[in-house]
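hey so u asked for the seq, here:
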Amino acid sequence: GLAQCLSKYYNRTFGPDLRNSPSQKFGILINTVMQSLLDILFRASRKYPLKEAVVSGSERVMYGTLARRVRRMAWVLVHNMEIKPQDRVLLQLKNSPQFIVSYFAVLQAGAIPVPLGISLSKHEIAYIANDCLPVLGITSNDFMNNLEGARLEADLPAMKLLSVDDTHGEKGIR
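ran it, structure tokens below
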């Protein structure tokens, strides 16, 4: 099935490595694919800095602007929020340019984004958080109470929360 196909691709690409389990190989492969998406974004930003990358309602974000926002947010994640490689980061944001920036910034920081649907309850988020043990949750003010409740229910007091207000661009850390 899919796991065998990915395992064959992994072995052809990286060589057989008996030290890694199939799930570790899958994680490395997924990380490689995500880094490739990041590379595509940055290449497009150099080649087409003034072309539209994201259109959301009346908001239009050019590739150059998107790449700058991703780099800036990744810097904040690493230096201010102390995100380390392989850390898990919850994302609960509406479909918006800010979601795209946040997702790619988490990848740029070397962490693993865990996107959450906006309709999930705090109980469902707590269940996911208990499984992946995130160090940070990124959301907008609309969903901050949801992530705060999930953090308490999952008993993850060290998990930081970053509010990125989609409409005003304000940022807050809790």
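The longest helix spans residues 22-47. The helical segments are 2-14, 22-47, 63-79, 97-108, 122-132, 144-153.
lmk if thats what u needed
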